[in-house]
Amino acid sequence: MIPELGHFALVLALVLALVQAVVPLVGASRNRLALMAVGRPAAQGQFFFVVVAYVCLTIAFVQSDFSLQLAATNSHSATPLIYKITGVWGNHEGSLLLWAMSLALWTVAVTVFSRHLPEAFVARVLGVLGWVSVGFISFLLVTSNPFERLLPAVAEGRDLNPLLQDPGMIIHPPLLYMGYVGFSVAFAFAIAALLTGRLDAAWARWSRPWTTVAWVFLTAGIAVGSGWAYYELGWGGWWFWDPVENASFIPWLVGTALMHSLAVTEKRGAFRSWTVLLAIGAFSLALLGTFLVRSGVITSVHAFATDPKRGLYILALLVIVIGVSLVLYAWRAPRLTGGGSFGLVSRETSLLANNVLLAVAAASVLLGTLYPLFLDALNMGKISVGPPYFEAVFVPLMTPVVVLMMVGPFLRWKTDGVSPVLRRLAPTLGAALVIGTGTAFAVDHVTWRTVLGLVLAAWVVLASLQLLGNRLRDRSGAARLSARLRAIPSAWWGMWLGHLGIGVFIIGVTLVGSLDATLDVRMKEGQRAELAGYSFVFRGVQDADGPNYDAARATIGLYRGERQLTTLTPEKRLYRAQGMPMTEASIDIGPLRDVYVSLGEQLEDGSWIVSLYYKPFISWIWLGCLLMALGGIFAAADRRYRRTAEHRSTAAVAAAGRAA
Amino acid sequence: MQADRSTMWPGLPAWGALALCAALWLSPAQAADAPGEQAPAGGEIAPTAAADPELEKEVMELSHVLRCLVCQNQSIAESNAPLALDLRNQVREQLQAGRSKDDVIDYLVERYGDFVLYEPPFKTSTALLWGGPALLLFGGAGWLAWRLRRRAVELRETVALSATERAQARSLLAGDPAQPPSSPEESRK
Amino acid sequence: MKAKFLVPLVLFLAFAGFLAFGLTLNPREVPSPLIDKPVPAFSLARLDAPETRFGAEDMRGQVWLLNVWASWCVACRQEHPVLVSLARQDVVPIVGLNYKELRGDGGIDMRGVSLEDETARSIQRARRWLADHGDPYALSVLDIDGRVGIDFGVYGVPETFLIDRDGRIRYKHIGPITPENLQQVLLPKIEELKRAG
Question: To 10 degrees, the CA torsion angle through A151, A156, A162, A164?
Answer without folding.
Answer: 50
